[in-house]
Structures are given as structure tokens and as C-alpha cells.
């Protein structure tokens, strides 16, 4: 599939939809490139291979995200033109990049790192805080458990707490 550039000026668009499994979607033009080939409100096909990221990662677009792009005509393709060189507005990051950065930052903190703040390192180790959830019961001793079984009819079947009832919050 041969492509030829249509406009030298970046266009702006809003992601109408993007399917992460198939790797393509459509942008709605919100600012034209000046040559008049695409009007505001028209839709442009976008493929994940034309999404430009600063570091190699899984490339995708988020519905409602604003992007800048070039437009190229497509010879013998299903669509007459497609978006190329898709970046965040003003050359900034795309949502896939900021989500990836946040994921990497949170995973490094969970592993004991402090992100990129090396000058703040004071040697303290990361210590996870364990919290008791509202549904966890206080531990009982074996003596308490066996006496409660006998007082309920004497069978040896273990009793479990069910959901609901008077004691459920």
C-alpha cells in the first residue's frame, strides 16, 4: 500500500474510537491542515503503526483523546486517506505513554524503588502495610472453636460463618 503525504501542516483530531485488539480506529478532525482536503468533522482512519511514541511500548489511542497528525493518501486501500505521525497535542505524550509511565512508576515503588528521585534516597526500605479488611474475623483458639461446636448440637461438622444474618454489616 503506497501512501503520499497530503498536507505539510499538522492537523488536530479527537479519537472517535480505537480497537486495541485489532490496532486501528478513527479520528474526527477538529482542526484542518489548511489545504482544505479534509473538513472539520470528517473522519480519518488511523492504524497503530502510525502512532508515534518516544519509547517503544504497546501503542494505542484512548477514546476522546486529542491528537495531532499528518494525513496521507492511500493507493488501493479500503480508505482514501489515513492519519500518519500521530502524536499528542503540540508533540506531547499520548495517553498510552502516560499510562505506561504511571504503571512503571507504581511497579517500581511496589518493588522498593522510589522512582527517579535518587537524591532523596535515605536508605529506608519500603515496608508494606498490612490492613485487616472489614470482613476478616478475629482469630479464635481451638478451645473456643470446639466448645462452640458442642453447644450447637454436638455434631463434629465444622461450622462456618455465612453471609447475611444479624451479625453481617
TrEMBL record:
GO terms for molecular function: mRNA binding. Gene3D superfamilies: Nucleic acid-binding proteins (2.40.50.140). One of its GO terms (biological process) is pre-miRNA processing. It is found in: Cytoplasm. InterPro entries: CSD, CSP_DNA-bd, Lin-28_RNA-binding, NA-bd_OB-fold. One of its GO terms (cellular component) is nucleus. Its main location: cytoplasm. It holds the Pfam family CSD. PROSITE patterns: CSD_2 (PS51857). Residues 97-169 are annotated as: Disordered. Residues 160-169 have a biased composition (Basic residues). Residues 10-88 form the CSD domain. Residues 131-151 have a biased composition (Low complexity). This is CSD domain-containing protein.
Amino acid at each position: 500500500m503506497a501512501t503520499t503525504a497530503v498536507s505539510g501542516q499538522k492537523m488536530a483530531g479527537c479519537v472517535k474510537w480505537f480497537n486495541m485488539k485489532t490496532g486501528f480506529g478513527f479520528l474526527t478532525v477538529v482542526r484542518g491542515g489548511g489545504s482544505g482536503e479534509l473538513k472539520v468533522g470528517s473522519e480519518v482512519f488511523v492504524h497503530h503503526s502510525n502512532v508515534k511514541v518516544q519509547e517503544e511500548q504497546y501503542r494505542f489511542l484512548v477514546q476522546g483523546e486529542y491528537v495531532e497528525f499528518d494525513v496521507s493518501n492511500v493507493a488501493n486501500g479500503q480508505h482514501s486517506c489515513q492519519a500518519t505521525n500521530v502524536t499528542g497535542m503540540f508533540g506531547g505524550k499520548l495517553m498510552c505513554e502516560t499510562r505506561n509511565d504511571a504503571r512503571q512508576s507504581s511497579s517500581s515503588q511496589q518493588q522498593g524503588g522510589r522512582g527517579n528521585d535518587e537524591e532523596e534516597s535515605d536508605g529506608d526500605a519500603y515496608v508494606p502495610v498490612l490492613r485487616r479488611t472489614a470482613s476478616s474475623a478475629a482469630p479464635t483458639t481451638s478451645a473456643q472453636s470446639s466448645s462452640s461446636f458442642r453447644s450447637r448440637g454436638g455434631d463434629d461438622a465444622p461450622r462456618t460463618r455465612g453471609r447475611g444474618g444479624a451479625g453481617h454489616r
